[in-house]
Amino acid sequence: MAVYFAEDSPILRTLLESVESSSGRAPTAVQQLLSAMVSDNFLISSSNGATSNVASNKIFNVIAHLNALDRGRPYIFLVAHYDTYGIIPALAVGTDSNGSGIAVLLELLTLFSQLYSLPSHEARYNLVFVLSAGGKFSYQGSRSFIDDFNERHSDERIALAICLDSLALGDSLYVHASKTPSDANTLRFIQTLKHFAERPVELITKKINLVSDRLTWEHEIYNIRRIHSVTISHFSNHSDPFRNSLLDIPTSANLVVLEDNTKTIANALVSFVFGLDSQLCNRVKENELRAWMSMFGSKPRPVAEPQQRAHITEISVNDFVLYNIIEDTLTITIVKPAISELILAFVICVYLYALYHFALHAQSLLEGTVIRIRKTLAQ
What we know:
The protein is of the alpha/beta class.
């Protein structure tokens, strides 16, 4: 069953008032019958056919690689899902979740592409930047990406996957993990993040619920593939309703917070990748993040083909049925109830019967009338 939402308007209010007035119960049966006879019915039709609802479009991950001078170095994945989802897909902007994650990822890509272009850089890791599709559908894009990566690079070492999710609000940063980290890379990155952070950074662990049909954080899909991974977010709880709220719009985002969080993550990554201790990323500017947010955080991003020019990989969505209609035009036609048509048919029948009876006896009636007129004149 389809559910439609419409913006408030005077015409819609008039329509609702008419429906409310005609749907009320009259005090007597006669009044109820009269109300049913004169009230209007409404026939609603859609401009889209039901056969075209199921989406058949392809969806893609967008992937960029930055390689160290030594190609044999381990890999670090930087991941942010780009799609939005809500009860009204056409209004689900997702500025914070996860437009802010996209903005931070692209700003990091801009920064590290400059650093990796230096001929003498001594990066310790190969970096892979992933804009993953299907994030709101149990992170299908990340699942496809890591399976494809393992198939193509089965002998490569993956040091860490860092997922970025909702970074434009809050007073703290939370590092989510499936269990208390014990590997050196994850522990060192978290310590580095705390070192450069100007706001509290807290580690939160939550076991993966393998029985659930949906994963709660993107790092869980990497943990299932036995890859060390964390998610950085200002949300302390995965079930926070604002993660999928229609109120997650551009005016709700705090660009100052986003800039601070971007600097913190950038400094931690530069220190982690190059083995430096100083703060190097003061070049992150609010106007650059504002541009990314304006491009990706101000309009709906349903699961569809992205427009970036980069290496893309097609993915298939499993366990979910997607629908490609997010906006529709409904036509409302006012029609009279069936009982009014029956009464109208009865009146027409009576009229036709009277007309037939008059035509059948018209001559005799006319002759009688003429005779009576003559008698009256003769007198």
